[in-house]
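Students often ask what a 'structure token' actually looks like in practice. Rather than answer in the abstract, let us consider Methyltransferase type 11 domain-containing protein, a protein of 354 residues. Its sequence is given first.
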Amino acid sequence: MPMTVVSGRFSPAFLPIRFPVSRLLPVKYADQRRVVFVPRSARASSSASVSVETNSSVNSAIEKEKHREEQEILACPICYNSLAWISQPNGLIESALSGTQLQCNTCKKSYSSNETHLDLAVASGSKQYSEPMPLSTELFRTPLVSYLYERGWRQNFIWGGFPGPEKEFEMAKEYLKPVLGGNIIDASCGSGLFSRLFARSQLFSLVIALDYSENMLRQCYELLNQEENFPNKEKLVLVRADIARLPFLSGSVDAVHAGAALHCWPSPSSAVAEISRVLKPGGVFVATTFIYDGLFTFIPFLKNLRQEIMRYSGAHTFLSERELEDLCRAGGLVGFTRVRNGPFIMLSATKPSR
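Now compare that with the structural description of the same chain:
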């Protein structure tokens, strides 16, 4: 049966030639919206050629639209103005291999790919300067921990009350329902465990796997390419960036997810403020983390001790629920809610709607 290609929100839909035209979905182009269909008069004589031609034009339109969406969301982490492609990639997942380069439209700082990912950290491109992070961050930049993360390390989180990636993913989807179909940043993605789940679900138009660790992003790239017939691979973007200096335009992101990450951030307040900045009105922030509150919240001596522990380790595992709620409120987010299971907590907050 001859087929007509019509672009939907997430992927091309193949419809029979007799499918009612009134039920066709619009194809979204960079500069217009239009419906692609085969006229009844042309069906008998040229349906095959028209179908092939339409397939090619729609695929081209989808590719252009994808690049437009990616370009519209990315920003210079120095001045927060938009970035422009110097060399256009075939897809961001392949951008590193094709030598993709971007440049800030304002300060003219250039950014490029780094083997497997786009490097959009502030110090990207520096030759001599390096900036060590707290121990809790540097640990995950090592090749050994990056390799072991999904090969035994993450599985031990069950002892801290974490229900497991698949269950956590289902829990997160409940919070993310208002923004399904939009774009999502998987912040501090590690080896991409949840990034792949988000992309595989096909619930989001664009998934950005973001981490500060180059080795974690390499693992993410390798694990992604080990999966045959991975759906929506072209909509999964790997980006290296600092959580406290996100390379995205203000108000351009529908959702931010951070799995087992907040306790490792050097400054959770700076990170939440950045997340709030990039979220659209009504955008959703969902995070899981470890917290050991209890006695540390009520006994003055232990409260001082935990401050010293966090100061030298860089880990914020001793925050309380009330402090996490206050953290989100101070960062401009509202509607704080949470689920607890021992040290495990999943929290969510929302950028206020206008």
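One point worth highlighting: The first strand starts at residue 3 and ends at 7. Ask yourself how you might have guessed this from the sequence alone, and why that guess would often be unreliable.
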